[in-house]
């Protein structure tokens, strides 16, 4: 008995970790170009957390309102950037609550590539900053691309 297997499976998506920095536009644009070359979707993820002070003082209802606000604002901002950079590229946008490094590493298991922006942190700030990029480079199971810099044509107010 011969069975036929379909090889029309869609290629694994490119995972793009997005934050609020101006460099995110450069990372997104690079990922868009790669998605076009590979013929795959983008999976754009923004992970966020309440600050320790916020988490301690907000009621359940206030936390839920804050979550809804963050999700709506992030989604709108990412859609604006994506609309300008690549209206023709298929993308899924997810706004997730939790630590960015572990979230991205977990999601990278089902990705062909993980794309992140680099940040210019001088001196001590570089040494003491919790680096999502370093975490992902250390633990991701797929290749990780770090895209440098702020794009020259970015809007200085939004970074987009």
Mind telling me the C-alpha Rg? 17 Å
* Sheet with the most strands: spatial strand order: 3-2-1-4-5
Distance between the amino and carboxyl termini: 56 Å
Q: Helix/strand/pairing class, anyone?
A: alpha/beta
Number of helices: 6
Q: What ranges have pLDDT less than 50 throughout 5 or more consecutive residues?
A: 1-7, 123-128, 153-160
H-E order: EHEHHEHEHHE
Strand content: 15-25%
The portion of residues assigned to helices is 40-55%
Main sheet characteristics: 5 strands, parallel
Shape: globular
Mean pLDDT: 83
> Strand tally, please?
5
Structure in words:
- Helices cover 43% and strands 17% of the residues.
- It has 160 residues and is α/β, with parallel strands linked by helices.
- It has a five-stranded parallel sheet, with helices on both faces.
- Strand 1, helix 1 and strand 2 form a beta-alpha-beta unit.
- Helix 4 runs parallel beside helix 6.
- It is globular and about 45 Å long.
Task: Give a quick rundown of the structure.
This protein is 43% helix and 17% strand.
What layout of secondary structure does this protein have?
Elements: E1 14-17, H1 24-38, E2 42-48, H2 52-57, H3 60-85, E3 91-97, H4 100-107, E4 113-117, H5 123-128, H6 132-139, E5 144-147
Parallel strand pairs: 1-2, 1-4, 2-3, 4-5
Please name the defining characteristics of this protein:
single chain; 160 residues; alpha/beta; five-stranded parallel beta sheet; 5 strands; disordered C terminus
